[in-house]
């Protein structure tokens, strides 16, 4: 019986004692052997032996499964990311070296309890979105082996989709962590640049590269991100990111929607219908579509392979390609060698162009929380890509290439399967794109969209036990403060501007616990209520909960005149929130309006 490698299933079995890490790796090793024998898909470049797997498993003995977030969770590693003692090839045998230390992200995951399974196949030097540019063979799609797996993180995606790893690491420079996710029915997280350090990662474009995560669910991806994130002094591009702000994924949100004539599907007759279906699901989740002009984003995308970033690929392996050019895959060599002919003047011209386009594209974010696009416009067979390797590869990056250049975060989400045509049965998906640092809100929205879209994960027979489970927000500070208002700060009332001018947004309308007296205070305008907690005779009061940046909270509180202030307000559901309260002495001459249940009811009373 095939193992269920979902985080929830494994964690439950470890905690109840029905599975140990040693038992897991023994069964998993046999399962991988059987999979390889049945139909070689060219997933692996190097697999750990059973003895090596067992050594990693035994290292967890005596450790507390409840305290290690990735205890006994097996993962695969793209073979441009170092694992100590195992060759790193970047899918080029003559380039191979054996590192003494694991990449920072890999070591952090092992420290969190994860077990490495092996190194996976990729488009050589992470150059490609197809998964066929490898001397180790074209990696085959997990659902239909005649089709491409997507690349460059091909083996990493297929390993998870086939149930050979619980999650995997890829890299993403132009979509390599997203396109394979769509093609193999997975969540694909392209984190904000620098959130995951790249120490121990063979660079493609060092200024754009990020380690990516493939997982069965968005909640699982968030666990991996939390365990591996954080700056590394050895990586000049790693950084601490500011708080992500409002977690729009948990409530109402506004999403950017490309105009109809900005959408391209390259002959995929079902592409528009698939995308429209996903848009409908987002609207059903509370999303408000806002049509945007995709032109500046697409103009940025063209810079990636028509501009100096190809020279950055050349610089990454300059000594190797200049001394051993024959060692490269022919397509990889042709693309990379072109970078050696780009001048410094060309580079600066492209940088100026990028900055201008970035300023234009930035305007689109003023009225949206995220942007939604198809992850890829279409999919091709391996045979078709091998016959036309450049043009068909380029098509797959239509909606991905601009993300890294604009320093954005993104999550690819499965949303269904083709019901007819050449790609019948293959998955399709959309990508949620947000500003830098928005990883957690995107993952939260992805979890909601994923649960409402599909009923399978990867190519496994297991039900998605955790679909719909929202990511844990604890490791991702929002930098936001919630405050409950009950009077003149309510929506549409005279002092609401004091919230909105500080960037506050309405989270929800609630009622307090029935523990408060509510009074119309003397004086005004503006007229104000007073809310006082009592031991008996109280009522439930209508409130609005607003969320504003913590940096704005101090100035907001400083502007509240006595006898009002901010204290802890208990809500009807048993939770509490910061909110307006009143000093009890101030209600001696006030009118008790508790029975009305709220300030709006009082304002609507006839004089």
Protein architecture, described:
By secondary structure, this protein is of the alpha+beta class. The protein is built from 20 helices and 19 strands. It is globular. The N and C termini lie far apart (75 Å). The mean pLDDT is 95.
> Which strand order does the major sheet show?
1-3-2-4-6-5-10-11-9-7-8
3D shape? globular
What's the main sheet like? 11 strands, mixed
Strand composition percent: 15-25%
Percent of residues in helical segments? 25-40%
Runs in which pLDDT lies below 50 for 5 or more consecutive residues are none
- Give the count of helical stretches: 20
Using the CA coordinates, give the radius of gyration: 27 Å
Mean pLDDT: 95
Q: Would you tell me the structural class of the helices and strands?
A: alpha+beta
First-last Cα distance: 75 Å
The count of β-strands is 19
